[in-house]
Amino acid sequence: GNGEAGRIVTYREFVQPGLSPRMLAQAVAERSGRERISEVFLSPDAFAHRTAEASIAEQLGEVLAANGLPRPAPADDDRIGGWQWMYQLLENDAWVIAENCAQLIECLPLLVRDAPPREEDIRKMDGDDPADAARYGLVSAARLAGLHPSPRVIPSGGPPGFGGPQPRDRGSAFPGSGAQFVHGMPLGEQIARQVSATDATSRAIHYQRLEAEARRHFAPKKFARRPPAARHGRWWQGI
């Protein structure tokens, strides 16, 4: 939804594995109550006909329409542009996530960039469905509103995965403005000084992200060493 000053608000999540498409649609309808829902977006995969039965989108659409909700439309699946749009919204405090969206809040700081040659994308991993769902909604609604998010929204010198490489933050999907950590100062104080968001939920996400980067920054360096001769003289990685 749209909040104050044009902010986008994600105010509710529903995560329930094991439901059939029709059961899921009914659960969504019940939770929507009398809210005015103008669009429902689904992954483009949901519109594929894999069997003689109706597609997932068609099954969902039947139940949603019966409850006065719109039939689903295919979400924009521009992954790279979508992640960059999400990044821009977070950095500009333009996206507010309600505290009851616990799984979304938990998974966002854990996203990492994919390996070359797709380093501008986010690596697929278990538990990233809430982030994918949010990306579908954010980028599809933006295009519907004529905002046209694209990979060019982040400057060429921006964070890795969202414009250009910065080896210092290698691996972080949402590295912010380039987190920096030093020895000799309490870590909590260092993180607090670098949290720029003002909204409580955005601050929590930013803090978790910086905390994860700090753990990587201060992690012991691993190196190869030769084991005792009794272990066949092979090189082992790490300690």
TL;DR of this structure?
This protein is mainly α and 239 residues long. It has helices at residues 21-32, 56-66, 79-91, 102-107, 129-144, 187-194, 200-218, and strands at 8-10, 41-42, 73-74, 95-97, 224-225, 236-237.
Description:
With 239 residues, the protein is mainly alpha-helical. It folds into two domains: 4-74, no CATH class; 79-218, no CATH class. The chain is 36% helix and 6% strand. It is built from seven helices and six strands; from the N terminus they run βαβαβαβααααββ. The protein has helices at 21-32, 56-66, 79-91, 102-107, 129-144, 187-194, 200-218, and strands spanning 8-10, 41-42, 73-74, 95-97, 224-225, 236-237. A two-stranded parallel sheet has the order 1-4. The chain starts with 7 loop residues before the first strand and ends with a strand.
Give the topology.
Layout: E1 8-10, H1 21-32, E2 41-42, H2 56-66, E3 73-74, H3 79-91, E4 95-97, H4 102-107, H5 129-144, H6 187-194, H7 200-218, E5 224-225, E6 236-237
Helix pairs in contact: 1-2, 3-5, 6-7
Number of H/I helices:
7
Give helix and strand order, one letter per element, not per position.
EHEHEHEHHHHEE
Separation, N- and C-terminal Cα atoms = 49 Å
- For the secondary structure, the number of strands is 6
State the domain count.
Answer: 2
C-alpha-based Rg, rounded? 21 Å
Percentage of residues in strands? 5-15%
Question: Structural class, from secondary structure content?
Answer: mainly alpha
> Which sheet architecture does the biggest sheet show?
2 strands, parallel
| Strand line-up of the largest beta sheet | 1-4
The geometry reads as globular
Low-confidence runs of at least 5 consecutive residues = 150-172, 174-178, 221-239
